[in-house]
Design a protein that fits this description.
Length: about 270
Amino acid sequence: MPSRAKNSTGRWVERAATTGGGRTYRGQVPINWYASLILICVVGLLLLGFSRYERTHPTVNTAGQPTTSQVWHAALATDICGTMKPSLPASTNAGRVGLTTDGSGVVTIAPKNSSESGGNATLGRFVTEYGNGLQLSDSTLRYPGESANTNGDVCPKGTPDSGKQGVVIVYSWPNFSAQKGSETSGAPQDLRFTNGQLITMAFVPATASIPKPPGKVVTSLITAVEQSAGNAGGTTTSTTVPVTTTPSVAPTASTSRTGPTVAPSTTPTT
């Protein structure tokens, strides 16, 4: 009996040795390990690709103001090579779209649907809806009825910036009394409207001083904002142009080279 048990145990040990650490096991390819490694690499590449897509295609925030029940106003001007162009003619499709102008230089932001409200209420949306040859991008500005101006083009003779290379710049001020404006970073067409805002689209030398919209446009803006506030029962948003005080002169740092930019000395009464 002891001998048979010993022989049985010996055969079990021998069998275990051959299956657990033999040459056959050492020669096998660790398929599961390689599969896991490949899966990790694939997932990593997908995450990198998604991250880059999110950076280059940011999600537009369609929530917030202005809503489809609000009406905002902003002043808009166009400076080409130092010459302030006339205000854009009135929108021809005002009954169908919510971002329009009446020809006074004031843009009315009255969203009709989600494509125009919240984060979609942008300068680029207005340009698209306005049509009539108006173009705006980070490299091109075209005033209706004229040739497009592209970054690097030389300003023509007869303009204040004659012979100088121009670039597209969009400058904005939060309200008519703001002394400092700011250049739009990124794509200028993505600039979001705010109530009482002043905007100048310009094709000028990179070092040029960008002027505010002309004084008569600012006056029209103040009137429009006050009328909207009155129609809404006197309630306004936090971005409304202040109407209690008015500076007598606009800041000299943003004076137009070809037209007045003096702010109105008195505020129209409601």
